[in-house]
Description:
single chain; alpha/beta; Purple Acid Phosphatase, chain A, domain 2; 5'-nucleotidase,  domain 2; 39 strands
Amino acid sequence: xxxxxxxxxxxxxxxxxxxxxxxxxxxxxxxxxxxxxxxxxxxxxxxxxxxxxxxxxxxxxxxxxxxxxxxxxxxxxxxxxxxxxxxxxxxxxxxxxxxxxxxxxxxxxxxxxxxxxxxxxxxxxxxxxxxxxxxxxxxxxxxxxxxxxxxxxxxxxxxxxxxxxxxxxxxxxxxxxxxxxxxxxxxxxxxxxxxxxxxxxxxxxxxxxxxxxxxxxxxxxxxxxxxxxxxxxxxxxxxxxxxxxxxxxxxxxxxxxxxxxxxxxxxxxxxxxxxxxxxxxxxxxxxxxxxxxxxxxxxxxxxxxxxxxxxxxxxxxxxxxxxxxxxxxxxxxxxxxxxxxxxxxxxxxxxxxxxxxxxxxxxxxxxxxxxxxxxxxxxxxxxxxxxxxxxxxxxxxxxxxxxxxxxxxxxxxxxxxxxxxxxxxxxxxxxxxxxxxxxxxxxxxxxxxxxxxxxxxxxxxxxxxxxxxxxxxxxxxxxxxxxxxxxxxxxxxxxxxxxxxxxxxxxxxxxxxxxxxxxxxxxxxxxxxxxxxxxxxxxxxxxxxxxxxxxxxxxxxxxxxxxxxxxxxxxxxxxxxxxxxxxxxxxxxxxxxxxxxxxxxxxxxxxxxxxxxxxxxxxxxxxxxxxxxxxxxxxx
Length: 636
């Protein structure tokens, strides 16, 4: 038995219940599969979201399905199509095949649609059996936005019929207009410069929405591939959904880009944003997570007044495909829809072969057994890729003359993960799935601008992982077990030593405990001491740059670049472009010498295979722990 929504049960003559469903930031996640880890996943996949969509359609008299962009890029299937198989005229992109199978009514362009270039984008969207719109990406700029020649249509008007509560059918014109962050001109400059331009999101909306009303739109929905940011409009803002919602004539807003869930208890209230009611500037709005994790749903109660429809009530929600338990366990709430899986089964199998096949070569093994005692190849390759990417992004900006450094931490370095929880990729062929071993989290790239003083304190914060060791002591434990390895940032591009005979300046959570302490010594750039007022760009990730770990210089106020790409994707691109990588650690940091002093460092048993790689430290086995870690005696 299908339960009617209260709006459907309540609708009377000249009243109709319309359900607007949203997907956003799919990033080619059709299958419930993590290609990097090469295993199934219950937290992703349009095939799972499809079950929610089918359920809503089954209980609805009137429903439309819309996508909010970022569908072409973002996982190895997208890279496989772009870099390996290619898109020829008439080819169907797998995510478009899946969206066609599910019967989308329309979509907009997200910023990642441009990652592979305009030719790839145009060929990919040509196969869509639904309109794709975007009002602020322009091939030829006119005197006003309404005179622009846009890359795709700025909007579309769907002529539909709604069945009211009495069973009578009435015409309705539903207008859909799309927007993308203007920052695509920076993020994909090499693909877009000289070919397209962008308009400010709100400027474009103010121009086109009145025209849509002139053409008889009863209802206008903004497909805003833009986050929920400040209520104050600034020209060119990336996250413009709040001022966009304030544009007269827009009735509802689908948001995305930020990979968040709205409405949701986790979303903080801010000016003009109600995360409980699900409104922005008083209008219904949703953001459906990312990778198919949720389906956004706006229920509208519409009333017909003469020949016009108006919104008299609404409800908003974001329905998940899984539930996360207090113990972090994952319980799937739906099963995959076979028709969606079948639509891309061939490309899924080809992607599995692709991620398992070498995409490059590494001249040295990538392992993390010694990542907490010496410069490490598994961290080095992450730093190399981040610097490579940010160097391109800084070109043509006010920051391009500044030295570019890179901060990266070892994610798999034993600890609570156990004695097998280490990266270990042998020299030779390297496959895309190996990247998950190098970079566990789906973080996105950021760059911050810091002073020399902030740089030093950033490193002092990292150095808190070490216990204070008295000179001449024997076999004291080296590491503070309360300090997670992912907060041990190594910063490449400078040289330094860590003097662990000194107390730590910061505690495990970043709290200042010894203001005068100095563990970081001989900090230099290009062979010269770093001055406190010297400035640098540091490549890092969104977690760190926004305050994760509470690092000096990374509290959210120093960010100068927010990239759309995940750090994982950047590593893959770097490997593909380089062909052969040399991840040998460059030895830019070391523990300061303490003659006659030994410490005990716990690592994985397979570290024995690489003991000969330790250049600046003498180490010898000192037994195993009860839980299987290898104990190494390190001579400082």
